[in-house]
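Milestone 3.1: sequence recovery, worked example.
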């Protein structure tokens, strides 16, 4: 059994989509991981993250975005499924590694600055 939050973010295909300001503008056409594709009449289809869904029933998918905010969040393709990926785990470094990298970059910058000063004198 899923939690209410999960149910609220799992839209059904062909369900109308309504913005926070009450504008009905499209239909759920496809689902992929944490994203859904919008079929927008007389416009190019696009993807949105399910994180923008405030609620979903068989009659309507409600968004947390106003109509004028949609362009800022539309995607041409679904994003990566972070929950199913270990790539973020691999990219996190320890504090010691971060400090080591910072020290190395600072040494390299100091060497570059010395070369620049020597060339400008």
């Amino acid at each position: 059994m899923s939690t209410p939050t999960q149910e609220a973010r799992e839209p059904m295909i062909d369900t109308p989509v309504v913005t926070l300001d009450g504008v009905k503008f499209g239909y759920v056409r496809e689902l992929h991981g944490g994203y859904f594709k919008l079929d927008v009449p007389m416009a190019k289809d696009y993807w949105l993250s399910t994180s923008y869904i405030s609620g979903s029933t068989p009659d309507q998918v409600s968004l947390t975005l106003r109509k004028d905010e949609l362009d800022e969040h539309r995607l041409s393709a679904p994003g990566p499924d972070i929950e199913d990926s270990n790539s973020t785990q691999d990219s996190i470094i320890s504090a010691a590694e971060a400090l080591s990298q910072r020290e190395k970059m600072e040494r390299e910058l100091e060497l570059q600055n010395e070369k620049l000063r020597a060339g400008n004198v």
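Helices lie at 4-8, 70-73, 87-91, 95-120. Residues 1-7, 84-88 have pLDDT under 50 and may be disordered.
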